[in-house]
Structure formats: C-alpha cells, structure tokens
Amino acid sequence: MRFTLDIDYSPEQMEQSRRRNEAWAQRGYADRVAVGFCLVPRYFTPLFGIPYSAIFESAEEQYRWQLEFLKYRIERVPEDIICTGTTLGVGPYFDNVLDSGAFGAEVIWPENETLHTRPTISTVDQMRAYEPPEPGTGLWAKAIDWWRTMRELAQQTRLTFGRIEGRVDVGPIPTSGLSPHMIAVDLVGVDFYWWILECPDDCHAFLAKITRALIDAHRHLARIDGCTRGATGLAEDSAQVMSADQFREFCVPYDRAYFEAFGCPPGQGRGMHMCGQSAHLHEALVDDLGISSFDLFGYVVPPEVAARNLGGRVHLWGNIDPMLMLKGTKAQVKAAALHALEVLAPCGGFRLGDGANVCPGTPLENLAALTEAAEEYGVPHPGRPLQ
Questions:
Q1: Using N-to-C axis directions, what is the helix angle for 252-261 and 200-225, rounded to 10°?
Q2: Taking each helix axis from N to C terminus, what angle separates 180-188 and 200-225, rounded to the nearest 10 degrees?
Q3: 123-149: string of b/e by CB count within 10 Å (b at 16+)?
Q4: Residue 286 has what DSSP assignment?
Q5: Alpha-carbon distance 377 to 336, whole Å?
Q6: Summary mean pLDDT of the chain
C-alpha cells in the first residue's frame, strides 16, 4: 500500500457520535448535544510546521496531508461530526474560491494565507457583457483532475482503527458552496452594492446568468462522480450588509432556484451559513427562502436572538466566539458554551460549535471545553423557543 494510516478511535466512540448526529437530524438528542467544529486546513498547517501553500502543490500532497490532519483531529479533538464509522471522507480542497475562480475571479495563491480572489469586472458594461464559463472548465477542471487522482490514491491506502479495517472515500467533486450573490460580489467587488441601487435590472440579469451556470456546473460534476446532489447548503456571508428587502430581491430568488434545482423543498435540505450579524435577515431566511438549517452561524448573533427568531423552526449549529476560543481561558469558553446550551438546546435540533471557523492557534483544551459543557449539560428537554 502506498499510504497507511492507523487511528486510535474506538467503535464505541464512532457509534456515540453517529447516534448524536442522527438525533440532531430529527431535532432531538441522544445522550447529549452533538458538537462539531469548522476546522479547516489553515488550522492544521502551523501544527505540522508546513507552509499553507504546501497543500496546493499537487493532488497527492493534498491527499497525504488531509490524511494526517484527519488523524490528528480524530485523536485529539473531541467532537461528533468527523468519525461516525470506519469510512473517512477526503476530497479536493480550495478554500472558498473554487466557484468564484471558475467563474473568472482572479485567484491569489499566497504562501501562508488562505486562498482568496480579486474582482475582474470593473464596469457595468463588462457585467452586461459577461458570459459564464462552460461547466467543468477553469478551476473546476483542476478539482475534477484532483478528484480523479485522489480516487486512485484511496485505492492504494490502508486505513485501520487498531485491528479494525476502515477505508478512505473520496466523495462528490466539491464546490465552494458560495451563493450566486457571493460569486457576483467576488467577480465585481463592493461596487456590486452600488450597482444594485443604480442598475438593478442589469444586476438581476447578471445573477440569473450565474445561477443558471452554477446549476449547470453542479449537474455536470454529478454526471462525472455519479453522486446525487440532494440536501445542500449555501453561504451568504456578504449579504449581511443588505437590508431585508434587498436580500429578498437579490438573494432569495436565486438561492431558491438553486435549492429547487436539486430537489430541496422548503424546510428540507436547505442549509444556510452566515458568519456575521444576520438577525435582520432571519425572517426572510425562514419565511421566504425556507431554510432547514442555519449552519455555523456567526457569534455576533446572541443565543437569545437565535432562539427567538429561529428556535424550533430550523436546525441550529453554532455559535461560540472564535476569538474567545482562541484567546480566552478554558473556563470562559466553557461558560459561553453552557450559556448557548441553556438557551438554544431546549429549542430542539441544536448542535454546539464555533461561530464560525476555528482560528489557527486555538488551544485544544478550549475545543474540549465545548464537549465538556455538552456532557455537563446532559440531555436537553426540547420546549418552546424564547418569546
């Protein structure tokens, strides 16, 4: 075998995590609230003493490092979302730039920072003339090539959990999860927010082009990997600068079209992520867009507000302050986690996590504080959301 990996994690731990996630999906609980973190490669590269750019050198290098990161994470970070059985998933990873880069934004590949993009459309005339890429071209083509390479490498990998044989699975060809609106902002920059006021019809035409091309691209990827795109999620981080009315006009129709294209009816399979202050958009998210889960929502939304606006209506996952997790004491982090549990767990369907994105350098003991809080809190008794 080309790669061998042995992970110290018991079947009992896997089964407990599986049950917790299964209960969360039903808006209930098993023995405690499930815990899960947004831990991405930028957290692990400093721990392994490698530049961030090392994971983008080749598909094989990224595959190797993903295996190392998984072993570290499973053995050292107490959570429930990564190891629920003996099959572990990997796949091509390009931060949040995959779709925007494929659509024509300039991708920046730094040595020790995350990938990001620069706008390439600077005038309304350029936006009017814009034509989306063909499915599977640009950065998508690289993701497809890397996916194929990783599938071959997975066949040359032996994964064990002690004496128990496991396997590595390379799942669907990934996408960034950015909404049509976020891709538009990556292509244009902040001027897009002026343009929606000055030339709204042109912006709608631009968003419609992006939405159709995004759906076509994802269907193209599904034909290649053979995986059904069912329950799905989108990110609308930059939408928080918009009013609720603007969000309903320039985000909801295009997000809805995306969800409907993949068979997700209102309230089922429609995940949404927003990092920052989203309280003014909660009503539109539920009533107009029909989201089913609010995933790793931003810490600036107090638990009481999330409970009042969304509790009992959608699954909730979040939302401990990442900077508190980075710089606070374990006691402070645990106290914040217990507060979130006391307010949000009774709503049903709550998963405890960061809000959002664990910072590099966050101590392991502060990650463990969330799981300790969940264990101390115990089994919630779902009731009515706060009024």
A1: 20
A2: 110
A3: ebeebeebebbebbebbbebbbebbbb
A4: I
A5: 12
A6: 95
